[in-house]
Specification:
This is GNAT family N-acetyltransferase. Pfam families: Acetyltransf_10. By secondary structure, this protein is an alpha+beta fold. It has one domain: Aminopeptidase. It contains five helices and seven strands, in the order βαααβββαβαββ. The protein has helices at about 20-30, 40-45, 50-60, 100-115, 130-135; strands at about 10, 65-70, 70-80, 85-90, 120-125, 135-145, 150-160. Strands 1-2-3-4-5-7-6 form a seven-stranded mixed β-sheet. Strand 4, helix 4 (about 100-115) and strand 5 (about 120-125) form a beta-alpha-beta unit. Helix 1 runs antiparallel to helix 2. The longest helix is centred in the N-terminal third of the chain and has 15 residues, at about 20-30. The radius of gyration is 15 Å and the shape is globular. The protein starts with 8 loop residues before the first strand and ends in a 7-residue tail after the last strand.
Length: about 170
């Protein structure tokens, strides 16, 4: 499978991006996590974007990057504090094209440049393999209650070394 995909460009989050990123968030949950979560769990999880203003404030309060292909946003990721990947979502139409890896690479470099020695993420069951392949190690399993639904995830950590500098 030698098909080359165009590399995603990155730009910072702007408040006007909130509605589009909320749509990417919801589409990603509904279309990419059905093997691991029930419809009810997906609905509860996706409801975090129901309040677009609140969703936008959350993104604005963190270091949030947007990945674009041909100028169109196709994914986003946010760094909470200096050491936690809070969100990393890719639109289903761009899944498997390296967008998530580009976003994760950027957050790792930014965290390293801020002097952080390690990153952690609470990875959904659907994202555990993605993070494992990037060198993240599972630390513990979690159960999180969202709108009456219990969702499992895994806290994973990665030590950032000399290769993580910007």
């Amino acid at each position: 499978m030698g098909q080359a995909f165009p590399k995603a460009a990155l730009r910072p989050f702007l408040p006007a991006d909130a509605p589009l990123l909320a749509a990417i968030f919801v589409a990603s949950i509904h279309e990419l996590t059905s093997d691991d979560y029930s419809e009810e769990q997906q609905e509860a999880w996706a409801s975090a974007a129901d309040d677009e203003a609140g969703f936008g404030k959350r993104l604005a309060s963190e270091l949030t990057l947007i990945a674009t292909l041909q100028g169109a946003p196709v994914g986003f990721a946010s760094l909470k504090g200096n050491d936690q990947i809070d969100m990393l979502y890719v639109h289903p139409s761009a899944a498997g094209q390296g967008v998530g890896a580009t976003l994760c690479d950027a957050l790792e470099k930014l965290a390293g440049a801020r002097g952080t020695t390690g990153l952690r993420v609470d990875a959904s069951d659907s994202a555990v393999d993605f993070f494992r392949k990037r060198g993240y190690v599972a630390q513990q399993r979690n159960s999180v209650s969202i709108n009456g639904e219990w969702l499992a995830n895994t806290t994973m950590k990665k030590t950032l070394g000399a290769g993580a500098q910007a």
